[in-house]
Amino acid sequence: MILSMTGYANTHADFAGGSLSVELRAVNYRYLDVQLKMPDELRGLEGALRELLATQLRRGKVECRINYAARNVANGIALNQNLLQKLTQWNAQVQASLPNAASLSVHEVLQWRGMLANFNQRDEELRSHLLGAVKICLDEFSASRAREGEKLGTFLLQRVATIEALRSSVIPHIPSAIKAFEHKLISRLRDALAERDDERIKQEIALFASKIDVDEELSRLDSHLTELRRIVATGGVVGKRLDFLMQELNREANTLGAKSVDAEVSRCAMEMKILIEQMREQIQNLE
């Protein structure tokens, strides 16, 4: 499947140590740009979060907003006696050297990393719940992008079908256009022969050849449209490839219009260009 770069998802998780909310939103962007907005106490997990997001995202400006509300849980918590004894010794040594230094407060002691016996356990619990919540949110986010990508794929294939119909309608007009241009050319050649201007005859023939030769453009249009269908059906990261293909399609439509000697062919070429531009705008949203 093809994926849109735009999407939104959010999730919420409650656990013994608190609650987490995760919100993901993204818009189209040439590269992958992840912006993490979260409390400072979670910054230690930034690397793991970026790695997790990169497993499913390739392009887009992505904003991941995380809110965390800690819950005071006293049951089962005990002081780390070894660390408390060391802090007491260090505090006494500092005050012996600096009599005016303030002693550690109870609050400072309790906030000291590792002072609570189950601190590491709470850290691991928080990490597990955070990564789990982000994964759930990311799955929902990817699903929303897939749904949007499916709509964009349908949009593209509808335009492809219309361009193919226009291409088919052009083909029957080519013989009559050639015939009409031949009559004009014969008239010009008669005038040129009357003047016996060989150079002018060569110029008219060269102009005629360049005007009517659109078989190559029609053939390349067919090839590009077939490739577009194949890319959409294959899926994956297709945005840049489709964007390049739009340039090729637009080039052929421009040349077809420039070489046209028939009003209907010119109209079809213009319609093709409009459809190609519509597709190009939507392709900017694809990953």
Topology:
Blueprint: E1 7-15, E2 18-27, E3 32-37, H1 46-54, E4 60-70, H2 81-97, H3 106-111, H4 119-170, H5 173-195, H6 198-212, H7 215-234, H8 239-259, H9 263-283
Helix pairs in contact: 1-4, 4-7, 4-9, 5-6, 7-8, 8-9
Characterize the structure shown.
The protein is α+β, with helices and mostly antiparallel strands and about 290 residues long. Strands 1-2-4-3 form a four-stranded mixed beta sheet, covered by helices on one side. Helix 5 packs antiparallel against helix 6 and helix 8 packs antiparallel against helix 9. The longest helix has about 50 residues. It is rod-shaped, with a radius of gyration of 35 Å. About 20% of the residues are buried.
Total strand count, please?
4
How much β-strand is present in the residues? 5-15%
SS element count, helices: 9
The percentage helix is: 55-70%
Class inferred from helices and paired strands: alpha+beta
Computed Rg: 35 Å
Sequence stretches where pLDDT stays below 50 over 5 or more residues: none
Reading the helices and strands in chain order gives EEEHEHHHHHHHH
Could you write a compact summary of the structure shown?
The chain is 64% helix and 13% strand. It has nine helices and four strands, in the order E-E-E-H-E-H-H-H-H-H-H-H-H.
